[in-house]
């Protein structure tokens, strides 16, 4: 596990959405990184994407969601999760607004 000093040395870090909360838990302030790129956002569930956005972004952070909602979408096996709207990716929900 990197330390806070390790993370503050770099302008770019690479993480999964689920582990994107680690920098925040180590003390990296919101907005320290100017950009957040979410690759394959057409498959990413909203709660997982929100981990990265809510823990790392501030009002000046640029968030880029890259993906294709026409390709393989969310694979959800839980009836409960489906009924709560988790079959739709965060990117798809935003694009359907």
Automatic annotation (TrEMBL):
InterPro entries, per the entry: DNA2/NAM7_AAA_11, P-loop_NTPase
Alphabetized GO MF terms: helicase activity
Keyword Hydrolase: no
Keyword Cytoplasm: yes
Residue ranges of every copy of the DNA2/NAM7 helicase helicase domain listed in the record: 9-78
Keywords associated with the record: Cytoplasm
One Pfam match: AAA_11
One CC-aspect GO term: cytoplasm
Protein name: DNA2/NAM7 helicase helicase domain-containing protein
Phylogenetic lineage: Eukaryota, Fungi, Dikarya, Basidiomycota, Agaricomycotina
């Amino acid at each position: 596990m990197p330390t806070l000093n390790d993370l503050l040395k770099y302008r770019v870090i690479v993480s999964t959405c689920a582990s994107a909360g680690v920098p925040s838990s180590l003390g990296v302030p919101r907005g320290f990184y100017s950009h957040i790129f979410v690759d394959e956002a057409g498959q990413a569930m909203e709660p997982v994407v929100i981990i990265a956005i809510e823990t790392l972004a501030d009002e000046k952070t640029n968030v880029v969601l890259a993906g294709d909602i026409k390709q393989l979408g969310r694979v959800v096996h839980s009836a409960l999760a489906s009924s709560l709207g988790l079959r739709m990716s965060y990117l798809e929900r935003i694009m359907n607004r």
